[in-house]
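Researcher: We plan to redesign the surface later, but first we want a full-length starting point. Tokens attached.
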């Protein structure tokens, strides 16, 4: 039970737990990096398990349980905080720093929602952040489906929860990194962080988790170009996007992943028909 891969899976879980704690505390400038750490452990546990030859049913179940926290509940909580933080981006921010703004918004939301304290959040829109719980809701079905779907041994059907989390972390990171630039003027961020836009993003990404959409996996059986073309193209292009666009590369990488998967599927079907 307590072998190295399973311990690494536990570190994935703990990273997700700490991400939730930081998010609830309003530190969505730190929480995303803890989920990136969780993703690292998620990759590492499978890699080590294969190298050690200790893959089994227990490890698979533990992996899904950890993923439910790190890539289901944690991104949901973080997106809830993002929605609370940006619920009224229609003018300048007056708080001196990002953490202070998040903390103030979060306290006002809690007081308005749970204690009926009149404040700037005391309106019907205060219920919108709860829609972020659609992420863990759909992640549960995604992970359960993955465990029993024999079609997903070498590929995925539906967007994997780590990839979905990666996409969603664009929002807290962008919010944090650009605070000093747009605390005085919302600009384009007024539209990106519009509450209804965020609800739409959450619903679409939640549905993609369980969509019958074949997607390639990044697991390599060998390092040859043949049969790994799409993986190498994806990794190379992603690195180029990260170096040039940085945090703005995140949604583009996920969109690229989906587009390349669709192209790869059509190519594979054509090749199989020719054979």
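Model: Full-length starting sequence:
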């Amino acid at each position: 039970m307590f072998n190295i891969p399973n311990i690494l899976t536990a570190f994935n879980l703990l990273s997700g737990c700490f991400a939730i704690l930081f998010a609830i505390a309003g530190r969505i400038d730190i929480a995303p990096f803890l989920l990136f750490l969780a993703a690292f452990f998620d990759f590492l546990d499978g890699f080590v398990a294969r190298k050690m030859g200790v893959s089994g049913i227990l490890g698979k179940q533990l992996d899904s349980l950890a993923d439910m926290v790190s890539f289901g509940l944690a991104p949901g909580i973080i997106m809830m905080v993002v929605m609370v933080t940006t619920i009224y981006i229609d003018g300048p921010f007056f708080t001196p720093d990002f953490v202070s703004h998040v903390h103030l918004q979060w306290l006002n939301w809690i007081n308005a929602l749970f204690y009926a304290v009149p404040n700037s959040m005391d309106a019907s829109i205060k219920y919108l952040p709860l829609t972020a719980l659609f992420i863990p809701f759909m992640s549960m079905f995604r992970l359960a489906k993955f465990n029993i779907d024999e079609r997903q041994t070498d590929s995925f059907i539906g967007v994997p929860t780590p990839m979905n989390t990666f996409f969603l972390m664009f929002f807290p990171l962008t919010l944090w990194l650009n605070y000093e630039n747009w605390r005085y003027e919302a600009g384009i961020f007024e539209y990106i962080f519009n509450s209804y836009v965020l609800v739409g993003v959450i619903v679409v990404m939640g549905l993609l988790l369980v969509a019958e959409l074949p997607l390639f996996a990044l697991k390599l059986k060998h390092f040859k170009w043949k049969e790994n073309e799409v993986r190498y193209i994806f990794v190379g292009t992603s690195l180029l996007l990260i170096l040039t666009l940085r945090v703005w590369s995140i949604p583009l990488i996920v969109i690229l992943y989906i587009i390349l998967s669709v192209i790869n599927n059509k190519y594979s079907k054509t090749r199989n028909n020719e054979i």
